[in-house]
């Protein structure tokens, strides 16, 4: 029973579901947090590891590129010889160094062919231009098989070109002569990585002399 004149108590109702609107569920901030949790310490550590790994890979690739460039330059200069890339010896034909004494012939009296025996681009042209400035008659300017690293130049001619080879040796120090069987007096100059410059023209010795063939001179026997 109720008190006289009092109103009957109102029935209790369930709280209104504020997460639904017209039958559709509303996404709240709590739902987003559960679905996309913030980075915890473990995930941040994983990101740091990935960044460190990527940085290390980048540094390694840069170091590898620098090493490759330095190695290529060393090979081109002849400071580094890679197995399988060794210089091939020039086969000049007959063996033995001429023993005669030669007069110094005129620079214009024979044809000079200049060949690049290195991987240095333009070296044959550089040498040919230097000799041309002294009045030499330049023939071919091309590239050939590699010659021994550090070699200044190898001079090749037939018997008729021995005096011309002697002329070249007086203008370019440190060369070695090798004979072949050609019949004319032309001379081949195979330029190596040791080529720098010619002897100053006013200092060229034009007195008679002999040819130098260090690559043909046999090495003394051990203990001899």
Structure in words:
The protein has a five-stranded mixed sheet with strand order 4-3-7-5-6, covered by helices on one side. Strand 5, helix 4 (162-171) and strand 6 form a beta-alpha-beta unit. It has 224 residues and is α/β, with parallel strands linked by helices. The longest helix is centred in the first third of the chain and has 37 residues, at 41-77. Among the domains are: 29-77; 107-203, 2-Layer Sandwich (Alpha-Beta Plaits). The termini are far apart. The chain is built from four helices and seven strands; from the N terminus they run ββααβαββαββ.
Low-confidence runs: 84-93, 219-224
Q: Average the pLDDT over all residues and give the rounded result.
A: 79
- What's the CATH C level of the domain at 107-203? Alpha Beta
Tally the beta strands.
Answer: 7
Structural class: alpha/beta
- How are the strands ordered across the major sheet? 4-3-7-5-6
What value does the Rg take, in angstroms? 43 Å
Topology-level CATH name of the domain at 107-203: Alpha-Beta Plaits
Q: Which CATH-level-2 architecture of the domain at 107-203?
A: 2-Layer Sandwich
């Amino acid at each position: 029973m109720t008190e006289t004149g009092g109103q009957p108590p109102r029935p209790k109702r369930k709280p209104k579901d504020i997460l639904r609107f017209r039958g559709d569920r509303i996404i709240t901030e709590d739902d987003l947090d559960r679905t996309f949790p913030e980075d915890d310490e473990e995930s941040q550590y994983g990101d740091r590891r990935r960044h460190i790994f990527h940085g290390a890979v980048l540094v390694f690739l840069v170091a590898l590129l620098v090493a490759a460039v330095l190695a290529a330059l060393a090979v081109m200069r002849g400071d580094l010889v890679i197995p399988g890339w060794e210089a091939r010896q020039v086969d000049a034909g007959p063996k033995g160094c001429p023993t005669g004494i030669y007069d110094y012939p005129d620079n214009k009296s024979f044809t000079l062919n200049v060949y690049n025996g290195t991987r240095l681009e333009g070296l044959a042209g550089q040498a040919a231009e230097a000799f041309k400035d002294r009045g030499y008659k330049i023939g071919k300017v091309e590239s050939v098989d590699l010659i021994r690293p550090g070699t200044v130049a190898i001079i090749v001619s037939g018997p008729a070109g021995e005096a011309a080879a002697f002329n070249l040796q007086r203008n370019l120090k440190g060369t070695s002569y090798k004979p072949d069987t050609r019949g004319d007096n032309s001379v081949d100059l195979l330029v190596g990585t040791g080529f720098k410059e010619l002897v100053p023209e006013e200092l060229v010795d034009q007195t008679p002399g002999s040819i130098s063939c260090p690559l043909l001179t046999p090495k003394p026997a051990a203990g001899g």
